[in-house]
Design brief:
The structure is a single chain. The protein is mainly beta. About 10% of the residues lie in helices and about 40% in strands. It has helices spanning about 10-15, 155-170, 175-180; strands spanning about 1-5, 25-30, 30-35, 45-50, 60-65, 70-80, 80-85, 85, 90-95, 100-105, 110-115, 125, 130-140, 185-200, 205-225, 235, 240-245. The strands form 4 sheets. Strands 2, 4, 5, 9, 10, 11, 12, 14 and 15 form a 9-stranded mixed beta sheet that branches. A hairpin with a 4-residue loop joins strand 16 (about 235) and strand 17. The longest helix is centred in the middle third of the chain and has 14 residues, at about 155-170. The two termini are about 30 Å apart.
């Protein structure tokens, strides 16, 4: 695994500028003023390619071949002050990816429900003594290596490429093989959620007061085209139509991740991507 630096690839950034961005959103219960990321959030680059031995598009095996993206976010949690010596106290901060966060009542007070969240950070806890606190969280995007096959709430870059292939063919732009042979880059965004919790004392009781802030994270999926992919040739005889066998190619067995077999995400846009619109 490697740590992404907070730099932007210029070509990919230009493509994202043409796409509507996800808006930030927030919701806070009474007792928390804000929780915010104050560091730069990097653009994430992911590489996908076909690792199948067969050159038949139907036998494709698209895999993520870049390492899991890792990065650090830092910021501040600020709780509410009600008067001299009367304030809510910083309790914890955590982060995740996903959507559909909501405030909800719990036995302890008001919390944040994030049941569909994924790629969660560890929770950073504080002493419950101070009104504000700085936080640092390590994020790792544990990417699925291949397409889901089943319903999954976790975002999957291979599923994303497969969806783009389906759209490409459905729009009459070409065949599966045409799509799979060409380099391309797909631009999308995910939502990063940061949840803060404060504790408010009223009399002898202490109550949870939570809130959240969301941030859009730019994602580039670099698909590495497979030059060997070819449409299956149909041979026609008097009796039947027979599909000619598709040869396997000489490919040594490799793992799809690791220093030797996982190429880095591309830093330049392939030719086809310059003429195709982003999906966002």
């Amino acid at each position: 695994m490697f740590r992404f630096n907070a730099y932007l690839f210029t070509a990919a950034a230009m493509a994202l500028m043409a796409s509507p961005a996800l808006a930030q959103s927030s919701d806070y219960s009474n007792g928390i003023d804000f929780v915010e990321v104050q560091s730069n959030i990097p653009m994430i680059n992911i590489t996908v390619r076909n690792v199948a031995n067969s050159t038949d598009p139907a036998d494709r095996d698209l895999r993520v071949v870049s390492a899991n993206p890792e990065f650090e976010i830092s910021g501040r949690l600020e709780c509410t002050i009600y008067g001299p010596g009367n304030y809510a106290r910083a309790h914890s901060v955590r982060a995740s990816f996903g959507t559909q966060l909501t405030l909800h009542a719990t036995g302890e007070g008001i919390g944040v429900q994030d049941m569909l969240a994924f790629w969660k950070s560890d929770e950073q806890d504080f002493s419950d003594q101070y009104r504000s606190a700085n936080f640092e969280l390590d994020m790792e995007m544990a990417l699925p290596q291949q397409k889901s096959g089943l319903v999954s709430f976790m975002w999957n870059p291979v599923d994303y490429v497969e969806d783009r292939l389906e759209t490409y063919v459905g729009n009459g732009a070409g065949s599966d093989a045409d799509f799979l042979r060409q380099d391309d880059v797909f631009n999308t965004q995910l939502t990063l959620n940061v949840v803060g919790e404060c504790m408010r004392s009223i009399g002898n009781n202490t109550y949870l007061r939570a809130g959240y802030q969301t941030y859009p994270v730019a994602i580039n999926i670099f698909y590495q085209g497979d030059d060997d992919i070819q449409d299956v040739i149909q041979s026609v005889s008097n009796a039947d139509t027979v599909a000619a066998p598709t040869p396997n190619r000489a490919r040594r067995a490799t793992t799809t991740r690791g220093a030797e077999t996982a190429p880095p995400a591309r830093t330049s846009r392939p030719a086809r991507a310059r003429t195709r619109q982003s999906d966002n």
